[in-house]
């Protein structure tokens, strides 16, 4: 996570309240880039954790994309 934060890719992360897993949101230019980031994660690469990648369309409070997205 520190590496992702230093690269400016980390948006947010944390565990679910019921401790059944967690979520990490990153900035990526493409699905391939997001897959490469996930594959480089030591826990994912070792098979200790799995990863589901989903595109998320960020919208503002009125359904408009936020500036810069």
UniProtKB/TrEMBL annotation:
Positions of the YCII-related domain: 2-56
Pfam families: YCII
Domain of life assignment: Bacteria
Record-linked InterPro entries: Dimeric_a/b-barrel, YCII
Family as reported in the entry's similarity comment: Belongs to the YciI family.
Name of the featured protein: YCII-related domain-containing protein
Biological source species: Symbiobacterium thermophilum
């Amino acid at each position: 996570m520190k590496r992702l934060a230093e690269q400016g890719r980390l948006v947010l992360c944390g565990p679910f309240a019921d401790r059944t897993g967690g979520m990490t949101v990153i900035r990526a230019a493409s699905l391939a880039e997001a897959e490469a980031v996930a594959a480089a994660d030591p826990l994912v690469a070792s098979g200790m954790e799995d990863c589901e990648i989903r595109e998320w369309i960020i919208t503002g409070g009125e359904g408009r994309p936020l500036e810069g997205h």
